[in-house]
Structures are given as structure tokens and as C-alpha cells.
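Suppose you are handed a protein chain with no further information: no name, no annotation, nothing but its sequence. What can you learn? This example shows the usual starting point.
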Amino acid sequence: MQTKFIFITGGVVSGLGKGIAAASIGALLESRGLTISLMKLDPYINVDAGTMNPFQHGEVFVTVDGAETDLDLGHYERYTNAVLTRRHNRTTGQIYDAVIRKERAGDYLGATVQVIPHVIDEIKNTISDAARLADTDENSGTAKNADICIVEIGGTVGDIESLPFLEAIRQYRHDHGKENTLFVHLTLIVKTTEMKTKPTQHSVGKLREIGIQPDILICRTSEMLPDKVRSKISLFTNVPENSVVNGLDVESVYEAPLMFHQQELDNTIMSYLQMWTGSPKLQPWIDLIENYKNPHDKVDIAFVGKYVANRDSYESINEALLHGGIANRLKVQLHYIDSELLTEENAVVQLENMDGILVAPGFGERGTEGKIAAIKIARTQQLPFFGICLGMQMAIIEFARNVVGIEGANSGENRPDHPENVIDLMPEQSGHEKTGGTMRLGSQTTVLKESSLIAKIYNKTTISERHRHRYEVMNEFVPKFEEAGLSISGKHPERDLVETIELPEHPWFIGCQYHPELQSKPLKPHPLFSSFIEAAYVKRQARLGLLPT
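A reasonable first move is to predict its three-dimensional structure. Written in C-alpha cells, the prediction is:
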């Protein structure tokens, strides 16, 4: 079957939730038995999101093949079973880089290289490539294509930088036919004394100026659109009234698929694309929301990081903690603590009423001493502790300083070329710090000790998790750590790199060099987050004197 394409654009303002809409549509179509692929086209000139400021751009989501991508790919993977790669996020920078390389190689045979056709054709080729699934057909030996590929165009209609992408999807319909393409436009209904539709009319007008007529409108609104308003929007945008959909504010973003299904959005899409499937199997989503809205208790988790002023910087961790709470039917109350403001003097006051402490990833020296102070509290007060990436490295430094007695223990990221750096670049990385080739990126294997807590949590000893870091635990210090009571519970099998640590005498003290949050889904919570929340609840009951005697 030929792949059908759904193109999702946004208008009026940015940040309306195109990524959630795309992921929700993917979840609905997948529940009907269709195979789904999703793609994000980003208009910015950066080659990828890897070097972008997290305060401006939010989290960098790492794919299995090590691509540093937009955080919307995290939404796509959380809502669906799609396994995305670097093919599923393309930026203006990548498109122009590819075109220029082809020009230099003579691929255009001396032609004058122009936006049309060369840049647009490159965009169209990447869209077609995104429909290809990772696995191959057993009979033909070639890669299979998804039944439906959902393509989100970043930015807002009217932006100069997004024009080439809009022209590409306009041409894509011309090339592949209306029955194989669908345009969904996400817009905002402004509420003053009444619902104002003029911004939506203007946004659709901008699209129509460049030759794109939306088939479906999703109108972000805090309340249901009255029939009169829907009729007015339909009249002035030339979109059928039954294709004007409420994009309502919901308590949890995981309600969005059910909210859209109640308005028969998935049926409307099937009708436009001339596809027939069985009824959607949405009971898992119904049960998920039931568990989320009816917790039997709560836990208080200290979230210690240096980017807490922008919660999007930790989007996947936020969601994974929520997943862990849902798995235990607990409401997870996150208390964000700026590690730059945390000191040994004020750490006790800020953390004494917490049930668990998570120390987040990050780069650079700023805020590291605050993270170390929080880890000391967790270790000495028997508070469940979860350290991810830099969080694990800071746990190593805290243990080295305060238990092993290496007073000058630190990281080569903060203090290069020092004999007491327990975290540093590996010898083969030296001299290549700025080449971009020193990062460990993407899925890699870890072998866990059979007797370890983390192996018990995973219920297996060989795992694959995604990485994004440069510095490593220095193996020459490992014997001292183990002698002092730290367990190196997981290692990279080929390179003998430390991947996980734990304290056997502590109720729950685990650090991991990788990013487990990137593989957590609401319908399949990551076991580490589920176990961490469970341990935090046990601590809470003990703290409140509620454990049975």
C-alpha cells in the first residue's frame, strides 16, 4: 500500500502544541492497526539541536542512532511505537548543507542551483525517506514503508524561514494526489469577551495564498466551540464544519488522543485518505487516564538541575517521572530546585521533606556543587536517589570526596588536567574535545551485575539505552570506590566503561551514565522510574510513620 502523508502546520502563535497533536493522531491511527512514522521539519538554520541553548530550545531528544533532535520527537515516540532516527528530523541547515554538497560534487551538472527546484526537491526527498521503516521486508529484502507518515512543520505560518517547507508540502500533494495527502492546520481561538475567529481566518488565508487549503482545522481553545462559531470558521476558511475540531485544554496531555477520538477526528482522517480499518483499540489509553486521575496517594520528589527555569529542558525526565507515578497509582509532585542556588548550608532545609531526590543531566561546571550537596543528603539520610548522566558523575565525585577521602575529586569538564579528576575524557578523546567526535551518542549496550538491584529492576542483565555525554568515570579509581562500598553494577562490555552505580547498603541509590527517560512511555513506563517512585513512596510512609509494624 502506498504511504499516505499527513502534514501538520501551525498558525497565529507558536507553542500551540503541534507536536502533541501529531503524536495524538499517530496514537489514534496506530490503535487502528496502522503502522506509523512521524517527522519534524525545523526551519532553523542550525544543523541540529545539539548545540542549542536549552533555555531557548528545550530538551535535546536523542534517537537510537545518536541524532540530537527536536524535543517533539520525544512526544512522537512516547505516544506511538515508532522508532525514529536522524531521518525523522530535518532542519534548514541540513537541507542547504545537502544541496551545497551535491553542487560541489557536480550532481546538478552545472545547473544554476535555486530554491525551486533544488532545495524544494531535497525537502521532498527527505519527506519520502521518513516514511521508510527501520525493519526490512523478509521477501523483498528492502525497507518497508509506513502506512501513514505524519509530518510536522515547525514554526508558524507567515514566518519567512518556513516558506520552503510549505512550498515543498504544496508540491507533495501535487505530485502524490489529494487522496494520499492531508493538510491539518492548528490554530488559536482568541477569547476576550467572546471567541474571536479572525486570527484563525487570517492564518488560513496565509496558507491559501501559497496554495495550501487545509482539510482539517484543530482550534486550540479552553472551551468547546459553539456551533455558531464553528459554522463561521467553516464559512471563512472553506473547511467543512465537521472538520473543524476542538483542541481543548486538558488536565494531562495524554488525554489528547481520547479528546480527539470523541470528536471522531480519526474517522475524519480515514475518510479523507480513503482508508478503511477496524475500530480503534483505546482501552489502554482509557485505563491510563483513569489511573492518572485517581491516584491513591502522592510522593514529593526533589528535581535538582540547573535548567529548571525552563521545564522543557527536562521534558523527557518530567514525563518519565509521571509515567512512574501512574505505574504506582501515585501523584508525583515535583519540586524543582536550582542547583546553582543549592549549598551545603541550605540543602537540608530544602530537602528534608522530600521522599526522593533526582539529580538531572547537564553540561558545564555551573550548578555542580549544588548537585553534590543534594547527593550527600540523599546518601547520608537514606533518601532514594536517582542520578542521570551528569547526576551519576556528581554522585561519583561526592562519594570520592566524602567517603573515599579524595578531597580534590572533580571532573575534567570543570578542571582539566588534574590527577584527582575521577571523571575525565578517555585517553583516546584527548585533543578532540571540540571536534564533535568525542560524544557518546545513541543506543549502546550495558551488561549488569546479576546480583545488583538494577538487574533486578530490569529483570535482565543485558540492556540497551541511549547516551549523550562526553566524560567518563576514570577506571583507575574504581578499585578504591568498590573497596569503600560503591558497587559498579553495570559496564559497557567492549570498552569497560562505567555505566551504572549503586550503594548496596542504601535503600535505593542508583546512578546511570545513560538516559533511561528517552525510552519511557505512558503505556510502558521505564522500570527505573517506576522503581524509583515506588522506593520514594516507601520512604514517604516511613517518614510519616505509616509503615505497618
